[in-house]
Design brief:
By secondary structure, this protein is an all-alpha fold. The radius of gyration is 14 Å and the shape is globular. Bound molecules: iron/sulfur cluster (2 copies). The site of one iron/sulfur cluster has 13 residues, from helix 5.
Length: about 90
């Protein structure tokens, strides 16, 4: 049991950004040029804390660098919608 708890703790710390309501609200993704109707229809955003988009991505620009979630979390990359979430 203790071993399981320890493994879960490691797994939860693997992702850098917390998937919570506040971060979801603050996410800049819907305002970026790459974001489109497919992502909107799926309620997709906060890719830095979640997973890649299920939609096709054409890189037209990324707003992650301006986002308060990224600044607070000290993220330095972009295109989490295509490259996957920020990890330790
Ligand atoms: S991760 Fe960047 S490129 Fe992708 S939707 Fe969000 S702001 Fe746009
Ligand atoms: S860093 Fe990018 S994916 Fe993460 S919350 Fe900000 S805009 Fe959304």
């Amino acid at each position: 049991m203790r071993a399981l708890a320890k493994r879960c703790a490691i797994d939860s710390k693997d992702k850098w950004v917390e998937d919570n309501e506040q971060n979801y609200i603050e996410c800049y993704c819907p305002g970026c040029p790459t974001y489109h109707e497919c992502m909107k229809a799926g309620g997709e955003k906060l890719f830095c804390a979640r997973q890649t988009s299920k939609c096709e991505i054409v890189r037209l620009g990324c707003e992650c660098g301006e986002c308060s979630v990224a600044i607070r979390s000290r993220l330095s990359l972009n295109y989490y919608c295509q490259d996957g979430p920020a990890r330790f």
